[in-house]
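Figure 2 data, in text form.
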Amino acid sequence: MTEVQFNIALTHEAVSAAIPEREAIVWRDRRLTYGDLTDRSRRLASYLHGEGLGVRKERSELAPHESGQDHLALYLHNGNEYLEGMLGAFKARLASINVNYRYVTDELRYLFTNADARAVVYHSAFAPTLAAVLDSLPNVRVLLQVADDSGNDLLPGAVWYEDALAQSEPVMPPVEHSPDDLYILYTGGTTGMPKGVLWRQHDIFMSTMGGRTVGVWDPVTSYDEVVAKAVAGSNDAMLVIPPFMHGAAQWASFLMMHLGAKIVIPEENTRMDPADVLRTVERERCMMLTVVGDAVCRPLLEELENHTYDLSSLAVIGNGSAPLTPSIKERLLELLPNALVSDSVGSSETGAQGSHLSVKGDVSTGTFSTAPDTVVASEALDAILEPGHEGLGWLAQAGWVPLGYLGDAEKTARTFPTIEGVRYAVPGDRARQLEGGAVELLGRDSVTINTGGEKVFAEEVESAIASHPAVWDVTVCGRPSERWGSEVVAVVHLATPATEQELEAHAAQHIARYKLPKGWVFVDKVERSPSGKADYRWAVSVATT
């Protein structure tokens, strides 16, 4: 029997046709049904197609690190336009590109050039930054500006987003959609320059967007099966805190849409306002809330501990991309005893790889039940290790994995090696597989600190320090040392006064002494990406100043 190959545009069309009256996106006073979302994404697709954008070369003619499609950059805060932009691109056979809206001009110019963006949908607030780089981006042909509260004027040559939709027909462009059409996700660039990860739409759908149930890992086998799941769904609401420019937010949103659920966006979309988030969960009776580690959960906890909200609808707090320490989970579940915390592990290069559930009275962090084809590879990347192996290896993923990195054949070959005849994604996470199959995740090798001949994982030290009640946030990095080669440094934001000695004594209860920081830097704020991920480049600059 031939395996069905999925295309995201066609999957969305099939689901929407079955539940057109069901709510799909709620943001501020906007309540878009699946029918509305189909209408608006088709209009965007028709506009892009009418501008001559789409596929230039089919997948069969390309190397794994190449794209034959035009690219639509999404330079937006959260809102319905982001998900419409992705769907509109897919329906016109473009690939969308996620843009970090914190970038300054040089970073923005690098990203747009590296991605070879041909079109941009952007909020008016970003018009001045975009205008500063457009002269150096001759390939950008289409500018669609989304009105916001900034009051910035329309850029020369741009069209208002709503005007573009109004002048276009709500029909699918006359193109042949393919499971080989690309989904492109740019990495965050917190440890190096951002890289565009190229996924076939079939592979990302099967990995993270509804092709299988996380934890059960049962793959769907037909469009009819996807539609049946959506129709049987109860239109549960999921509130999304992380920005849609972050892969985890995109994956969770498309997963829920393919299940016929509702995506809810907090009213404040330029920063996280804890009171706004919790009011929205209360008002919309959200069943699920997505977070990114302690940096997002601490402010929510403080708000919950000081004010009263009816969160009886909340059943799942979904966490990904940054660890939630056990102490934060315990505080969260004390306030929400009927909820569970679901940790997910994965990366831009692997998709979903595993999950872990915590409930009140049974909390832990760092080990995961894994998906099929998630394994641990040897240090030399020449073998797959058996459960219970000695030492550390590399967390690896086979099966539905990306094609490669846009424009970078060398890095594609390094990150996607063939081991024992099977192609794997190995983005650099250190791990060991325990007896019984669970995986213990230690952290990304690029932020591992080699000190005095020992390897120290930044996330492990961060977790040990973050559990101190005086610590609001912390990032751990290495800096050069004559004695140790590199020494561990903690960059700490305190909520209440504490000394280095107190923090060190507390951390020593959880980790070996050689892992303890040899330097402490106290700051007013720990810088993170908009998604909540640690910015290790910033931490190193602070630690070495």
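Caption note: The chain has three domains: 8-17+32-206, 237-397+413-444, 452-543.
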